[in-house]
Amino acid sequence: MQQPDPKEIMILNRIVVFSVIVFFIIIAAIYLLFISGKTGQYSDFEDYIFGTYVRIRISSKINPSTISKAIFAEMKRLEKKFDPYVESSIIYKLNHSEDWVEVDDETLSVIDLALKIARDTEGAFDPALGRLIQLWGFSKFTEREATGTFTVPSASEIAEAASKSGYQKIAIDYVNKKIKTNGAWIDLGGILKGYALKRAYQIAKEFDKSCHGFVETGGQIMILGPKYNKTNWVIGVRDPRGQPGENITIVYLSEGSVATSGDYERFFIVDNVRYHHILDPRTGYPANKAISATVISNDPVIADAFSTAAFVLGEDRWLFTRTVFPKYGAEVLLVTPKKRLLRTDNFKIYEMSDR
Ligand code: ADP
Ligand code: MG
């Protein structure tokens, strides 16, 4: 028999070793693809904004931290621009001027939208309650909470502030781009987080149209895209009388936004009475016909403002909420003071996991 050439054996060995390496690389790549498909490789960003937290969970072909930082910078810009109690802001200027004030396009459109929602909700959502919000101390909530300096204003103080409040007082001159507040103080606290989330979505999609994940700030979530780009996000709606983490229901969403307004977020207790930060414009006192209101909408501005409005309308005016809100793309879950759950017709659909 002819002896094999040692050179040929070496070449053969190299081919075998090479094939084995290639084989393992392919297996590893398939495994990684499988794993990343399962985990989505989200990266998280957390910080503080609007007196609460913001959490951004994002997966993108672009560096996610670049997107998160751009979103956070935009939120900071909005917080500064629209803070009614800081002298440098446009809202402060509007509130403290007796005359028409020229505003930029963004300010005009946000205030215009807030006034429209006020009309659509029969004034339950009112962006001109600044005087009352300041009187109650909710404009400086974090400091007051730290020092424990909450007091209940007197009935006459409330009546006085209420008489100088209300969205009907705000006038817009669309031709000259001017706004006049006529003594009322604008406070966009019930819509600003929604608007910030809308901007967050736009910014994320400008960087990478197919990015996915969500942005969450103080009880409101805006979805950037389905989980792992294919399944619903599972979102707990907090039990307003439970501990954080205890849910009253669960909703499944792959797009849009969900916002909850509750009496448990910002409140103080005097003589066993709970006073919280959502005011009934008709009385000037905290609204007490609901303990939480959750709204699902494709538009985060609608979700935010309509959840505040649904809370104010409460159990007494539920029929109005139930009939009118879905026309504006808002599906509602209301928790009454006795913890009864009231839902608009389509809300249930979001509670079904196997849609
Ligand atoms: P949160 O900010 O806790 O998510 P909301 O979205 O309901 O709650 O907004 C509450 C904020 O909106 C208050 O802190 C206040 O600035 C403002 N606000 C209070 N009452 C009303 C109201 N009836 N309509 C519009 N804004 C309100
Ligand atoms: Mg709201």
UniProtKB/TrEMBL annotation:
Its cofactor is Mg(2+); Mn(2+). Keywords: FAD, Flavoprotein, Lipoprotein, Magnesium, Membrane, Metal-binding, Transferase, Transmembrane, Transmembrane helix. Its EC number is 2.7.1.180. Mg(2+) binds at G190, D304, T308. The chain crosses the membrane at residues 12-34. One of its GO terms (molecular function) is transferase activity. Coiled coil: none annotated. InterPro entries: ApbE, ApbE-like_sf. It catalyses: L-threonyl-[protein] + FAD = FMN-L-threonyl-[protein] + AMP + H(+). PANTHER family: FAD:PROTEIN FMN TRANSFERASE (PTHR30040:SF2), THIAMINE BIOSYNTHESIS LIPOPROTEIN APBE (PTHR30040). Belongs to the ApbE family. This is FAD:protein FMN transferase. It comes from Fervidobacterium pennivorans.
